[in-house]
Automatic annotation (TrEMBL):
SUPFAM superfamilies: P-loop containing nucleoside triphosphate hydrolases. It holds the Pfam family DEAD. This is ATP-dependent DNA helicase RecQ. GO terms for biological process: double-strand break repair via homologous recombination. Gene3D superfamilies: P-loop containing nucleotide triphosphate hydrolases. It comes from the Bacteria. SMART domains: DEXDc, HELICc. It comes from Metarhizobium album. Residues 358-518 form the Helicase C-terminal domain. GO terms for cellular component: chromosome; cytoplasm. Keywords: ATP-binding, Nucleotide-binding.
Amino acid sequence: MLAFMSNVDSTETRIWLKDEIARLLSCLAQASSAADRYALLRSLVRLHGGRIETQAVKSRFADEDSDKASRFGLAVGSTAIRLLDEQDERAPEGFWTAQDLDVSLRRQRDHLPPDALLLKYTDHPDYRSEGQKAAVRSLVTMPRGASLMVCLPTGSGKSLLFQLTAARMRDETPGSCVVVITPTVSLALDHERTLSQMPGLEASRALVGGMNPIDRANLVDAFRRGEIPVLFMSPEVALGSVREHLIEAATNPVKKLETLGAHISAVFIDEAHIIESWGRSFRPDFQRLPGLVHELRSHNSDLQCVLLSATLPPSAREVLRASYKSARGWGEVDAATPRREFDIVVQRYRDADARLKALDFVIDRAPRPLIVYTTLAGDEGADRGPSDLRLSASELFAHLKNRGYERIALFSGEVSSTSERSQIVRDWADDKIDIVVATSAFGMGVDKANVRSVVHACLPDSPARYYQEIGRAARDGRQGLAVCLFTDADKDGVKDDVSHARSTATSSWITKDLATPRWDAMLHASSNSRWIGDRRAMTIDLDAMRHGITLSTDFNRRWNMSILNLLQRARMLDVISCSHEPDRFTWDVEIREPSLLAPGVDEVWDRVFSLRDNEQARARTEVRHFIDIMRRPQNVCVLRDVFELLQERYSDEISSCGRCPGCRARGEMYVAEPLQRYSADIWPAGPLATALKLPPGTTLIIPEDMTFSKDLSPLMARLSSSGVEQVVVPDDIALDCAVAFKFSDARLGLVINHSSIVANDTGLAQIPTAILLRSNDDVSTCVLGIIKSLKDRGALPEPLLIVTSPSIELDGRRLDQTLSVRAPYLEDSLGHFSIMDFVA
């Protein structure tokens, strides 16, 4: 029953297994209810290969009612506790195979050599992946005022980007801070918890709704004084009462009071993929964020903006590019690859009772910790009729409490208390909770590395949500269980999970017949009309009411916001700023399309609704494909096909996962992916911060140690003192170079190993660079070929040093005849160049 993979005897796996067993024993000692204890015991017995001596468990399980043990698939005897070999009709198809134990490391970390700045500002000894390292390289070389979009797999360390930015900026400028926009309270609180343990970033805070007014005021004052290095908040908070303080913090320091020391260096938008989908109507403030960034940049033109996500469908990419491109520069890093740690189970049910029985069966047996997701938040199920087959989070939470679970929490939009939400996040991180029942309000980006199971008691309303939520599991790279149990009656008039997913994806799209009178009403109620350059600007009253509406409510304001967001996506106007004064909700806009101000111009609205129709068609197609995958999982590779809906341009490169219903049915086995590839835009060369002591173009340097086998500190010190900020080096010396760079004059100290540049020929950062090559070395020869290719494309960094033996050749010719017009210089010449030596 239990499958152990090839590296079960590795030291790393033994340590992981020992730690997991110790963690479960600790949780078991704290558990008081029989249900919690037996569920934890099952996880423990599973890690012992299916059998454990009773004496090894310091609890009285042998005295418990054996019927209770059998509910969890356990047989408790006087000497041993073992897993039952069950045959149960409640088990979803494929569940037994999926939950078979595999202790191997399913995601191999690349352990890429660090850069000097990583060692200087964090406690990370290396990078997790090629993509993460490429993202950091793009981040630290991006021009001031530019925007960057980064797509990395879930669990790959996107948070490092804002952590590193805050630490660097604060080191250079006291009071410098970073604002991070997060979609959920749970994510903001989890980031706050994580950063509280990082030297230099301990004072980072989350500003969330529902805070005690005094605590909120104190936090805002601390931010204004420059005491908070990273401030997390939702779009609604950023665009609400704190907006004026963000503008104040973005303003040039010399224009502020001396006591107001905060200065925003960058804005990060986490989980940026939801801007396109959530922002249409569910939370329209997401699509107001470009206006906020624009306004902050009007006070600080150097403000950088970084968008982070694990899943960026083409439609989302288009929206982000259109909304956040900057005249100072736009760059993209894309290293999204499917995570393959999951054993996937998908089962549909014709009625709610059958699904609930299967759900009970799975939750009693799924490895802990466990997240159970539903689509509905509230308690709507109390009065629903037999035609409604959906299950809400509050219903399920009450049901599991009735089944005896106490180490459990409910996290949904209805949990409004900040203190309660914060406590749940802390308890979850500290292993005081084994189960969280949640809606999408919990989990997006929450980093608990050892979540072992994610169960969907619904059909998620999009492939992005499904992929993001199963990505909460197995972030430590070990085995994760992903189970999706949903209702699909396939009958008219029945509210099941499939119809709910389809409705959620395709509803809330305003029609032209309703949009035009709403716009006319907003235009009629607008005020403060003025010209800004060649554009008409005005203040829009969100309480404007079209004909037939007699009272403006939040519902009316949201539809008006949706129309303005639609017009912004269609490039008809820009939302510049917003104001939520007491009893007055207004947005300031600039009109891009003058015809929008002329009544009855259908051509303008035809263009607007052509965009809306295309967006709706994409959403409808996407959810239809997703439903087809989940309805017939045995015919496809679920993971690959879902991922292709999110990253379609990579479809030819993705192999089957080997661990889903379709792969199991076809007997397809997991095959490890080759070295992760990525794409990354290279920023154009910018002005140098300090005067260089290097000649222009390419220069050959003869090192004192041509094998690079001795102490590298003198060479790295000479390179950095000459202005070199990036080195490309043989793999075996990369770590030593990074350490030596850390203690040099380098500000960045980027280190790229040879194998990385060979595997990902995406170019080099356009900063002063040195490339170390060995004679008679095949990899160095490959690197040399890449250098020639970069030269032919005009993409070599400037200036460039090639540090190698004078005997090395390219295409049968010496390097001073091919790559450099100058004779080689000795290593001790570094730092003694005069730019006048190279003036013709």
